[in-house]
Write a structure and sequence with these properties.
The protein has about 325 residues and is α/β, with parallel strands linked by helices. Helix content is about 35%, strand content about 25%. The radius of gyration is 18 Å and the shape is globular.
Length: about 325
């Protein structure tokens, strides 16, 4: 499996409070595409992540963390730009606030030339996200070129919308997302993201209609993530619904990436869609039970076990994202 995009240094507050009030922050790394790559690698799927990093300690940490999880890292060093940074705060009102400092970063300067040789053509699947589409013109062109190469080689594409409103406006984003969705074998989206892609108001569609209409745009397969309400899917005309796996939420950021990794690992392994949805829901829920975007513990529990984890009922948390 191949994916590409920006991974950043992640600073997480160890205690409840905003950054000015914190004494300690944990150093980590995070990025939607590398989170998915790590999940797949833990499930035994050979996975490559491509990205740009600055020639700085943050870039060194990104390469060490992603590569240390069994992912084949193709990181292009950029001496003229810095590795992006994001910060996570657990606020007193229960929100998790994520602030990104990525404008002009090395990761945003990704180009099609950073996808070497036959790296696309030899992949079992290419996974892309809407974040890369929004980062810069060159990053968006990289997605387009990767899709062209994948289509020519008969390599399927998966697409997670992952809309970032601070990076790109809804109207502009919709056109890009629809173009990529139409070239994808499966599309993942939150219900709000599905409505954005389809141009629908919140009251216009129920969840089944959203899944079927998004699947029609994408060639037959779509999965809509509903957070604490679980997930629904439309797979070649068949509608599936999966309630959320009950857990006590510690950190919800990164759960969507774990969900996608769970689905892709299952389907690449030949699992039926209903089984893949079960494993995705379990993976996304369990990812909420610990801090960090990808430090998720046992791969069997996250991506392979069909049953629900033990634990108290869902305590759903909301989170904000601020992109800069």
């Amino acid at each position: 499996m191949l994916t590409f995009g920006e991974t950043m240094l992640l600073l997480t507050g160890r205690d409840v409070g905003a950054v000015p009030d914190l004494e300690h922050m944990r150093v980590d790394t995070g990025g939607a595409e590398s989170n998915v790559a790590i999940g797949l690698a833990r499930a035994g799927v050979p996975t490559t992540w491509v990205g740009r990093v600055g020639t700085d300690p943050a870039g060194d940490r990104v390469m060490a963390d992603v590569g240390g999880e069994g992912v084949d890292v193709v990181a292009v060093p950029d001496p003229d730009r810095s590795t992006g940074i994001m910060m996570k705060e657990r606020l007193p009102d229960g929100r998790t606030r994520v602030t990104y400092h990525r404008r002009g970063s090395a990761g945003s300067a990704l180009t099609a030339a950073d996808l070497p040789g036959s790296i696309v053509e030899s992949a079992a699947l290419v996974h892309v996200t809407g974040i890369t589409l929004a980062l810069s013109d060159s990053a968006r062109d990289t997605v387009s070129v990767a899709l062209d190469r994948a289509a020519a080689a008969g390599v399927p594409v998966s697409f997670d919308v992952n809309h970032r409103p601070k990076l790109i406006g809804a109207d502009r984003a919709r056109d890009h997302y629809r173009q990529v969705a139409a070239r994808s074998a499966v599309v993942f989206a939150g219900d709000d993201e599905a409505r954005l892609v389809l141009g629908r108001d919140e009251q216009e569609d129920d969840e089944e209609a959203l899944a079927h209409d998004l699947a029609a745009l994408a060639g037959g397969r779509a999965v809509v993530k509903l957070g604490s309400r679980g997930a629904v899917a439309s797979i070649d005309g068949t509608f599936l619904r999966r309630p959320a796996t009950p857990v006590r939420v510690v950190d919800p950021v990164g759960a969507g990436d774990a969900f996608v990794a769970g689905w892709l690992a299952a389907t690449l392994g030949g699992a039926a869609p209903a089984v893949a949805l079960d494993r995705a829901a379990d993976a996304g829920a369990l990812a909420c039970t610990v801090e960090g975007d990808w430090r998720r513990g046992d791969v069997d529990a996250l991506f392979q076990a069909p049953g629900a984890p033990d634990g108290p009922a869902t305590d759903h948390a909301v989170h904000d994202r601020v992109d800069r």
